[in-house]
Amino acid sequence: MLVTFSGVYLAALIAVGRYLFIPATILSTILGSVAVAIYIVESFFAYRGYKVRDFERDPNLEKLNKSYAERTSRYTKQQLILNWSKNHKKNIAVIKRKLKNLNRALFLLFFETVYLAIILMVLSSFKGGD
Question: From residue 4, how far is each of 7, 10, 115 by CA, in Å?
């Protein structure tokens, strides 16, 4: 849907540009500005995807040894399994958010590549004196 929108946008811009005799330099400035805006949004999502986040971890072994040394092994096993389960759920949520942002960034990278290729084809269709 986004690619269709961009195709219609470019076709309309080219038609209006040729009809109103807009020079290629102005048209390239407009199209280049859109490409820069796409790049900024793409960089934002890539940053959010690659940003280092804190993951939930189990307590270190020294703390575990002090707090669970006098407890039964059954109780200790239950506590450890509960901690692992809780931390796993939190970490999966963080990883899914990172993955979502990286997928958005990769989609925008693909879209921007196609967009820039179309811009090059459009601007090469203008005559040299424009």
Answer: 5, 10, 11
pLDDT of residue 103: 93
> What DSSP state is assigned to residue 126?
S
Q: Do 32 and 119 meet the contact criterion of CB atoms below 8 Å apart?
A: yes
CA of residue 108 relative to chain centroid, distance: 7
What are the backbone dihedrals phi and psi of residue 126, each rounded to the nearest 5 degrees, phi first? -75, 150
- What single letter denotes the amino acid at residue 32? G
What are the contacts of 70-78 at 24+ separation with CB within 8 A? none
Instruction: Classify 57 in phi/psi space as left (phi over 0), alpha (psi -120 to 50) or beta.
Output: beta
- Which amino acid belongs to residue 15? A
Q: Rounded to whole angstroms, how far apart are CA atoms 78 and 46? A: 39
- Residue-level length of the chain: 130
Q: Does residue 107 surpass a pLDDT of 80?
A: yes
Contact partners, residue 34, CB within 8 Å, separation at least 6? 115
pLDDT for 124 equals: 74
CA distance 95 to 110: 22
Residue type, 33: S
